Amino acid sequence: MLRTLTRLRLKPLGGVPAARQLTQPFLRWNSTQPQGDSSKPAASSTRKPLSRISVSKGASPGEMQRRQYKGIFDFKVFALFVVSGVGIYWFFQSEKAKVTQRREAEANRGYGKPLVGGPFVLQDHKGGIFSSEDLKGKFSLLYFGFSMCPDICPDELDKMAIMIDEVNKSNPGQLQPIFITCDPARDSPEVLEEYLAEFHPQILGLTGTYDEIKQTCKAYRVYFSTPPNVKPGQDYLVDHSIFFYLMDPEGQFLDVLGRNLTAEEAVAKIREDIKTWEPKAVRERKSKGFFGSFFY
Fold it and tell me: What are phi and psi of 107, to 5 degrees?
């Protein structure tokens, strides 16, 4: 069999060499296979140079520049700038008015209220020393009277006891009640301790020498007619102002409560004063406002 195969010879076809006769049918078959979608043009035939690609259909360079300027200076943007400017101007003017109003209100605190209060050093009914510095830290309710008072002082101290209890319900521990005698010759610490125990245990009685009491009454604008040189056992009358003085936790005068107020009305006033009170540093900071440093 092998000998038969080796003896086979390809006959030339029309003068074409035998090797070419073998490869030519394969080439013809390969060239007839599909090479993609012939209906679509070649990519190279439709590709354009970058310089010929239109950036904006139907828009010239001048039109493109005009559109750019129009986008920057649009009417809406202009209106926004105007509204923002007006708003900022109004805000600054409003803030300036608030600062001015706060400063005027702070200045009027000194003009609208009497100058009540001042330094003093007295003796309390427990035997200790009590000064004006001890008014700081709490709201203080001061009343000037004397133990031999027949009717007015007992009535006012009964009212004071109600005020203490009611304020303690809403503001516990914030009010210290103080009774300052206008009759130091007869109101010793022992007398005041016994007298004030009839009204309320929290009331602290203060006494001192005649000159010390006189100076304290003068500082608080309290009128009293106690004679200066009283002999033991001498009978005399004492007249005095009838007011409650409310002092703030910084020891400054806050409000005055007259005899015309009922206990309930006085309590409501004290509660409102406590609620709205602010330290001096806070009031000064508010008087300047957020932009206070820009306006003044």
Answer: -65, -35
Indicate the DSSP class of residue 151.
S
Query: How far apart, in whole angstroms, are the C-alpha atoms of residue 25 and residue 14?
Result: 15
Q: Which residue has the higher pLDDT, 220 or 73?
A: 220
List pLDDT tens digits, range 106-156: 554 555 566 889 999 999 999 999 999 999 999 999 999 999 998 899 999
Domain 121-286, CATH class in plain words: alpha beta
**Exposure string over 221-232, b if 16+ CB within 10 A, otherwise e:** ebebebeeeeee
Q: Can you tell me the distance from the alpha carbon of 121 to that of 180, in angstroms, rounded to the nearest whole number?
A: 12
CA distance 145 to 186: 12
DSSP E strand boundaries for the chain: 121-124, 129-131, 139-145, 175-181, 204-207, 243-247, 253-258
Of 17, 46, 196, nearest to 124 by C-alpha is 196
Rounded CA Rg of the chain: 52
Q: Is this model's pTM higher than 0.70 or not?
A: no
3-state secondary structure of 233: coil
Helix axes 152-170, 263-276, angle to 10 degrees: 40
Angle, helices 75-112/280-288, rounded to nearest 10 degrees: 140
Higher model confidence: residue 249 or residue 97?
249
Give me the DSSP letters along 37-61: -TTSPPHHHH---GGGS-SSTT--H
Q: What residue ranges do the domains of the chain occupy? A: 121-286
pLDDT for the residue numbered 43: 47
